[in-house]
Each structure stands twice: as C-alpha cells, then as structure tokens.
Design a protein that fits this description.
By secondary structure, the chain is of the alpha/beta class. The protein folds into 2 domains: 180 residues, Medium-chain alcohol dehydrogenases, catalytic domain (Quinone Oxidoreductase, Chain A, domain 1, Alpha-Beta Complex), CATH 3.90.180.10; 133 residues, NAD(P)-binding Rossmann-like Domain (Rossmann fold, 3-Layer(aba) Sandwich). Helices cover 27% and strands 26% of the residues. The protein is built from 11 helices and 20 strands. Strand 19, helix 11 and strand 20 form a beta-alpha-beta unit. The chain is globular and about 60 Å long. The model has no long low-confidence stretch (mean pLDDT 97).
Length: 340
C-alpha cells in the first residue's frame, strides 16, 4: 500500500509499505480522511515532540476516518465491511496499573498513532482495535469523522474541569482543540464561554460556535465580563509559551485551569506565587479516555459542529504543503485534511 512517510524534518515521501491485516479483535480500515494536528507539526519541523523522536521513515497522523474493509475474528458485532468509521488511535497494554484503573490514556506502554514507535494513519490502510472503533452517525461526513479526535480532546478538557453547571469559562486559543473545548464546555452546562484568539478567522469560528470571541489584548476585560474576579474555568489550548501564565492570571481565585496546549519547547513556565496565592486547581489533558462515544453523540444530536474546523483539503501528494500551512497558520487555517 502507499504511505506518506516522514524521512526527516520537512521531508515527506510516498513509499510502498506492507499492507496490514487484522488479527483477532481488530478491524482493517481503508483510510479516507486525515486531519493535520499541530502536534504532528512538531515532528514535521523538528523530528520530535518532547522526548518522543521520529527516527527513520515514519508515518504521521492520528485524526482519521475511513471505511471498514475487514473485521478480524472475535471483533465487535457492531462493525461490518463498508461502514464509515472513526477510531481512537490507541493501543493500551491493558495490564498495567493505569489500564486496570481504566486510565488507559496514561498507560506507560500505550501505543498511539503517529507517535514513535507507532506509525500513524497517513496511509491507505490501518488496523485498529475493534473496541476503539466507532461507526459514524448518519449525516456525519468522513471529514467530520476525522475531526472526532480533536472533539474528544475538548470533551476530555471539559470533563476534567469539574462541575460546569452555571460556570463561566474562558478558552485561550481557538484552533481545533480550543473550538472543541468551547463546544464541550457549552454542552456540559457552562453558563457562558469566551475565547481569546489572535487570528481573526479563528475568532469568527469561535463566535459561530457559541463563544464570545476577543483578541488577546482584550484578555483582562473579557475575563471580567465572565465574572467580577474572572472566570471559574480557563482552558489553555494555544500551546504558546506564555499561555499557561495568562491562564492562571485570568482565572478567579479558587478556580480551575485546564492545560491542553502542547508547547513547542518541552517546558512549562508559570510563576509559582500566582496559583498558590489564588488557591487554584490545575489539571493537565492527556488526550482522552472513553470520550469518542460522547463526541460522536454530540455530533449526532447536532450539539457540536466539527465541519467548521475543515478549512483546507489536500491530496496525499500535497502533504508537505498541508503541514507547512498548518505550521505557519496562514490563510485562516484551522484544520487541513488530507484525503486518500
């Protein structure tokens, strides 16, 4: 089969690689749509993200949808050839203490698509665990199906933020993760949600999806609109070096900060005095656990719109162009999708 592989920073090639076959409890999927995540771009630019390094030819991509081609022995009865599906791009070990607690997202042995050593989905076929594979609801397109993954991250961020009924919330960054957090917070019962974003096209998307949208220069005024001493919850989804400090500065005393952004440098900088004196709760998003069903439920019920994320569409031969545009955030991009 054909696969787009990263051979080094900024170097993609289309290679012939062995086509996978499903084993027991697995499903083979013909890939149709792949989203380009900002975390993928770290590998494209630098060959690494934090301690994870892509060595040798490597297949990126973890946001995808496709069509079931083959179902392995003992796989879930809800899957059949020809179905449009998406899947959690994960393979937890199932035996470590984290997995036994149900916290497979922090499994130390977890294999995750597009994270070394596990190849991703920028290829014609992938094999996934059937129990993590989900049919797309009626009316959800394949491109929207690929956006289930960032929506699941937003659902995770909202879930760990604590009780949301009547809460005021602020999201820093209105890329696909930030927009997913906006929608998940609103669906979770938040009274008001605002988004801070420097790019005009992304502010427009946040406004369309139900948030008050403002520029970063208006951060303090926006926070005061949400509460006399700031919002109850701030979700940082920008991945910029100064965004975590801005989050703890803007949230109210006793509030909660959720850190979902991944900075380019593997370093987090927050003045210790701010969260200590304000008595803050700080939570980190580690992908998601059991959030795909919730995300797909929001799509099926019309309570989330991920089609709004897809601003640019490419073919596999244009992968480098899609990654470069994502890296530079030009042309109003939110998510580039590569169609196979």
């Amino acid at each position: 089969m054909k696969a787009v592989r990263l051979h080094g920073p900024r170097s993609f090639r289309t290679d012939d690689v062995p086509e996978p076959s499903p084993g027991p409890g697995e499903v083979k999927i013909a890939v149709r749509s792949v989203g380009v995540c900002a975390s993928d771009v770290h590998y494209f630019l630098h060959g690494r993200i934090g301690a994870a390094e892509a060595v040798g030819p490597f297949i990126l991509g973890h946001e995808f949808s496709g069509v079931v081609e083959q179902v392995g022995e003992g796989a879930s009865a809800h899957l059949r050839p020809g179905q449009a599906v998406t899947a959690e791009p994960v393979r937890p070990c199932g035996t470590c203490p984290s997995c036994l607690r149900g916290e497979y997202n922090v499994c130390p042995n977890l294999l995750f698509f597009g994270t070394p050593p596990q190849d991703g989905c920028l290829c014609q076929h992938v094999v996934c665990l059937a129990r993590f594979t989900f049919p797309l609801p009626q009316g959800v397109s394949l491109d929207e199906g690929a956006m289930t993954e960032p929506l699941a991250v937003g659902v995770e961020a909202a879930a760990i933020a604590g009780p949301l009924d009547g809460a005021s919330c602020l999201v820093i960054g209105a890329g696909a993760i930030g927009l997913s957090a906006v929608q998940a917070l609103r669906a979770g019962g938040a009274r008001s949600v605002a988004a801070l974003e420097p790019i005009a096209e992304r502010r427009a998307a946040a406004l369309e999806l139900g948030a008050l949208a403002a520029e970063l220069k208006d951060a303090e005024a926006t926070a005061r609109l949400l509460g006399p001493d700031g919002p109850d919850v701030v979700v940082e989804a920008a991945g910029e070096p100064d965004a975590p400090q801005l989050a703890v500065d803007l949230v109210r005393p006793g509030g909660t900060v959720v850190l979902a952004g991944i900075p380019e440098q593997d370093l987090l900088s927050i003045r210790a005095s701010t969260p200590r004196r304000k008595g803050l709760t700080i939570r980190f998003v580690r992908r998601y656990r059991h959030r795909f069903a919730t995300a797909l439920g929001l799509l099926a019920a019309g309570r989330a719109n991920v089609g709004r994320y897809v601003t640019h569409i490419y073919g596999p031969e244009q992968t480098a162009e899609a990654f470069d545009l994502t890296a530079t955030r030009r042309d109003g991009i939110i998510r580039a999708v590569i169609r196979f």
